[in-house]
Design goal:
This is Response regulator. The chain is 41% helix and 19% strand. With 122 residues, the protein is of the alpha/beta class.
């Protein structure tokens, strides 16, 4: 059975690039256009990993991480921040909120898949 990964980014083109890479590697993908949209789509189904941008309208990535960690079903779901933000303070805030990894854009699909394979829940 395919593992499910949620991608959260306000850029449709970035969601598409990530989605193509993940689907090509055999994953199922759920897309969210911002943190609020992503939370609405977490309806109890198994999600093995969440990949989220940091800077988004409505609800940013770090707020999303905090919100997801409050949900009993998703408390242990690993979250990767995929962002242009490279400031240590942002990284520290992401880690404090519960993010497992921090990847910088632009990224290569093989690099992304390598991180996904290390973090995806069994």
């Amino acid at each position: 059975m395919a593992k499910t990964i949620m991608i959260v980014d306000d850029s449709a083109s970035l969601r598409q690039v990530v989605s193509i890479a993940l689907r090509g590697a055999g994953y199922d993908v759920i897309e969210g256009c911002d943190g609020a949209d992503a939370l609405r789509k977490l309806t109890g189904q198994k999600v093995h990993l969440i990949i989220s941008d940091v800077n988004m309208p409505n609800m940013d990535g770090i707020s999303l991480v905090k919100a997801v960690k409050q949900l009993p079903t998703y408390k242990f779901t690993p979250i990767v921040m995929l962002t242009t933000e490279s400031q240590e303070a942002k990284k520290a805030a992401g880690q404090a909120a519960g993010a497992k990894a921090w990847m910088l854009k632009p990224f290569s699909p093989p690099q992304l898949l390598s991180v996904v394979q290390k973090l995806v829940l069994p």
